[in-house]
Amino acid sequence: MAAPMELSCWGGDWGLPSLHPESLTVMAYAKFSGAPLTVNTINNSWRAPKGDLPVLVSEDIVISQPAKILNFLRKQKYNADYDLSAKQGADTLAYIALLEEKLLPALLHTFWIEAENYCSVTKPWFASKIAFPLSLYLPGKMSREALNRILLTKGGPPLYSLTEVEAQIYRDAKECLNLLSKRLGTSQFFFGDTPTTLDAFVFGFLAPIYKVCFPRVQLQEHLKQLPNLCRFCDDILTCYFRLTVSGHSPAGQDTADANLQKLTQLVNKESNLIEKMDDNLRKSPQHPPRKLTTLKLAAGGEESSPMSRLSP
Amino acid sequence: SSLSTAAEPWPENAALYQQLKEEQILLSDNASSLAVQAFLQMCNLPVRVICRANAEYMSPSGKLPFIHVGNQVVSELGPIVQFVKAKGHSLSDGLDEVQKAEMKAYMELVNNMLLTAELYLQWCDDVTVEEITHPRYGSPYPWPLNRILSYQKQWEVRRKMKAIGWAGKTLEQVLEDVDQCCHALSQRLGTQPYFFNKQPTELDALVFGHLFTILTTQLITDELSEKVKNYSNLTAFCRRIEQQYFEGHEKDSSMIAARSSKRSLLR
């Protein structure tokens, strides 16, 4: 309890303390359980994020996954689930599994795979937080890992194309959101009046969908039709993170938004330039082969077809 | 086409396909097959179990088991539950919305933890892979096809484990996860006969399929089945479902045989 604990994680925007679901889950749990964490958000320093964030460092101990970090905090007597019954503890585990299986794929897709979202929001934002030249490589790597995960877990037959997989994962995610909304009902948190581990996980997954302004927002639109879930996120933000929620102080939020937009545009331009260079490099060797194939077709059309088929 | 599915009654010759019981089928597929069999028994829908060496390739999704009903082929428990519901049979109609959400969450828990742990044990634990999985998986095929197919499958499963973050886990950690899952299931079940008190649902079928298979399958060590045996209400649950839905059916006498000659189910 006395040892200082430091959390390294991704920072936030759009009114959120973090954009990254796992980082947000840990930060929320720390607030709920009263754990005194010093939060270091990654921003353009040379301390490159090794492996997966969030990472908790306490003296010599380094812990890296949200579930393990939460376990560690509980052992240090920062336990947000103290009042839960055994059955409620079991329910927590089950609902977390539901989030991971049904909601996480669509969340990953919205952030990392949907082309417009990735290129205009996710990549510039993450790239702006990491030092050059890692900023050119790491967002791409995170995007590839997300795609890999979705294809390997959801992409088998009878879904054969990425669009079919996408349709399925968004269907699952919307159903998951509906289930969460039904389960929450009118209570303030999932198990009554005090927030627990499950609230931290649900908040971690929902808040990024709710708040980040993407061009393609089908999941956000579905979430906005479930007012109790939106209220749930807003409550946690105002009570535990003391950040203004958009709509409560529009003036302050607007200037912040304007600054952010300018920054995003600058970073956008930079990454667009790099993209164009990449595209040019990729396009140039392809031109000669295309000309060859068109020539072949023209030649084949002049001969009678049976003859051209017989020739090996 | 969903309208025509609903119109046809359940035929007498409905069949469930899985791999060969004695020599080929693996822990995870056995569990999945048993879950579907239990579900159909609970719905009172008769089905014959047919064992084929190439069942995996016949399945529309590559996963087992699959059922052949009329001229429809449906694989895996989730789609089968939907299919059966379209025909007017459902075990979860009596649940309210919150209970349905809970049921789906617990089914994801079983898939997320128990099924993944079974896959880890049979494809990522080197001893188990060498001594049990490879010989069984390739058993219908001649050398070298048997080795090629099982290495291919192993590579596929390991890729998936890596993508979801299980590749870095040790066997002890995986068994810890199984214990955590069983603890949660045991707490949720409590002293009730089924998860939603008086009537079984697809969740009961799924949990039964996995737990019964774990309890009655001989692996390299007994560590996995010991984790389940720690929870007496779970073993009682399995016995209850077995007695209610599987005894008295001669076709499934292999189930009773499996229980009495436990040691010969796998190996």
TrEMBL record, chain A:
Q: Name one Pfam family in it.
A: GST_C_6
* UniProt keyword terms in alphabetical order: Membrane, Mitochondrion, Mitochondrion outer membrane, Protein transport, Transport
Q: Where is this region: Disordered?
A: 279-312
Q: Looking at the keywords, is Membrane present?
A: yes
GO biological process terms on file: mitochondrion organization; protein transport
Against CDD domains, the record matches this protein to:
GST_C_Metaxin1_3, GST_N_Metaxin1_like
Q: Where, per UniProt, does this protein localize?
A: Mitochondrion outer membrane
What protein am I looking at? MTX3 protein
From TrEMBL, chain B:
Top-rank taxon, per record: Eukaryota
Localization? Mitochondrion outer membrane
Alphabetical GO biological process terms: mitochondrion organization; protein transport
Q: Metaxin glutathione S-transferase domain spans which residues? A: 179-241
Q: Where is the Mitochondrial outer membrane transport complex Sam37/metaxin N-terminal domain?
A: 33-153
Q: Which key words are in the record?
A: Acetylation, Membrane, Mitochondrion, Mitochondrion outer membrane, Protein transport, Transport
Q: Does the keyword Membrane apply?
A: yes
Q: Listed GO cellular component terms?
A: SAM complex
The UniProt entry, under CDD domains, shows: GST_C_Metaxin2, GST_N_Metaxin2
Oligomeric and partner information = Interacts with MTX1/metaxin-1. Associates with the mitochondrial contact site and cristae organizing system (MICOS) complex, composed of at least MICOS10/MIC10, CHCHD3/MIC19, CHCHD6/MIC25, APOOL/MIC27, IMMT/MIC60, APOO/MIC23/MIC26 and QIL1/MIC13. This complex was also known under the names MINOS or MitOS complex. The MICOS complex associates with mitochondrial outer membrane proteins SAMM50, MTX1 and MTX2 (together described as components of the mitochondrial outer membrane sorting assembly machinery (SAM) complex) and DNAJC11, mitochondrial inner membrane protein TMEM11 and with HSPA9.
Protein purpose: Involved in transport of proteins into the mitochondrion.
Q: Which family does it belong to?
A: Belongs to the metaxin family.
What is the designated name of this protein? Metaxin-2
Source organism: Oreocharis arfaki
Q: What is the lineage of its organism?
A: Eukaryota, Metazoa, Chordata, Craniata, Vertebrata
